[in-house]
């Protein structure tokens, strides 16, 4: 009887820890995050050529799902604005398209807070700052 109680207690603690801190990432999600980092590094080379201001979330840890949705929406805007820009090479357009695709695939991650602000409530920042924020957010998701 005592053994059953001990086993049940251990299972309960494991379930609570998973709920509190989120389940570990699958290898597929991990690879997606790695790919995102590589594509974001490609954009580092042109960050000063893109003259856009984009909403940049600040509550990244408390509002993971909302932050992800906001960054995704802003990447869609970035894609639309750069598609016809002759200064931006195809390599960078492809990186932006890959970032959009990979952010979409991550939209099932948890950690949505109840007091999260909508994307438009965040400040608009110049592209280099937006890129820095998105890169830090993706690295946070890897932990």
TrEMBL record:
**What biological process terms from GO does the record include?**
CD8-positive, alpha-beta T cell activation; cell activation; immune response; positive regulation of gene expression; positive regulation of lymphocyte proliferation
- The species is Gallus gallus (Chicken)
Protein name per UniProt: Interleukin
Under the heading Pfam families, the entry gives:
IL15
Spell out the family assignment given in the record's similarity comment.
Belongs to the IL-15/IL-21 family.
Q: What is its main location?
A: secreted
Q: Where in the cell is it found?
A: Secreted
Q: Which residues form the signal peptide?
A: 1-22
Q: Does the keyword Phosphoprotein apply?
A: no
What superkingdom heads the lineage?
Eukaryota
Please name the InterPro entries in this protein's record: 4_helix_cytokine-like_core, IL-15/IL-21_fam
Q: Which GO molecular function annotation, any one, does this entry have?
A: cytokine activity
Q: Which GO terms describe its cellular component?
A: extracellular space
């Amino acid at each position: 009887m005592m053994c059953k109680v001990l086993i049940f207690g251990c299972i309960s603690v494991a379930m609570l820890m998973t709920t509190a801190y989120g389940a570990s990432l699958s290898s597929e999600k991990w690879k997606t995050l790695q790919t995102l980092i590589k594509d974001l590094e490609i954009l580092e080379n042109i960050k000063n050529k893109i003259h856009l201001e984009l909403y940049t979330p600040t509550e990244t840890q408390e509002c993971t799902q909302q932050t992800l949705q906001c960054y995704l929406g802003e990447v869609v805007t970035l894609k639309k604005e750069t598609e016809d820009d002759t200064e931006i090479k195809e390599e960078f357009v492809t990186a932006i398209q890959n970032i959009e695709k990979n952010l979409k695939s991550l939209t099932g991650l948890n950690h949505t807070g109840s007091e999260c602000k909508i994307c438009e409530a965040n400040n608009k920042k110049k592209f280099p700052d937006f890129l820095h924020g998105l890169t830090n957010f993706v690295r946070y998701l890897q932990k």
